[in-house]
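Hey, quick one: can you model this chain's 3D structure?
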Amino acid sequence: MTHHHLVAGPDTVRWGCWDSSLPPVLRVRSGDTVTVETLSGEPEDMPTPELGFEILDAHRAVHQNGDRGPGPHFLTGPIHVHGAAPGDVLEVAFEAIELWQDWGWNLQAPLLGTLPEACPGAKSCRSSRSSAWSASPHRRPGAG
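Sure thing. Here's the predicted structure for all 144 residues.
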């Protein structure tokens, strides 16, 4: 069993394009462990400087040098699992979730998402990690 570390950057983060034909940025075997660095937020989603939050160099690099697709979401990957085939069920266990940035954000857009009728108007919020996230992994914003 091998441990891998997948760094977020312009060569590993797919911005707005989740496509199974993209070449993998990492190849793993069943039983391997992976630490994946993730990013979230387009340039217009970043906190303003007067809020005092840090924007990571990796985040800036993806904004400046990443290939931007038609959508807003970021994906670090794809990751190829040796021996897996289309239609296979893969089990993924999260051993830990560690926050990388000192802020977070969320957006609810009108008539989009899982419960479109629950959000008739746009809402966007940014907050510090300490105020928005509790110590329990079961008490994450949006997790119920």
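One thing worth noting: Residues 3-102 form one domain.
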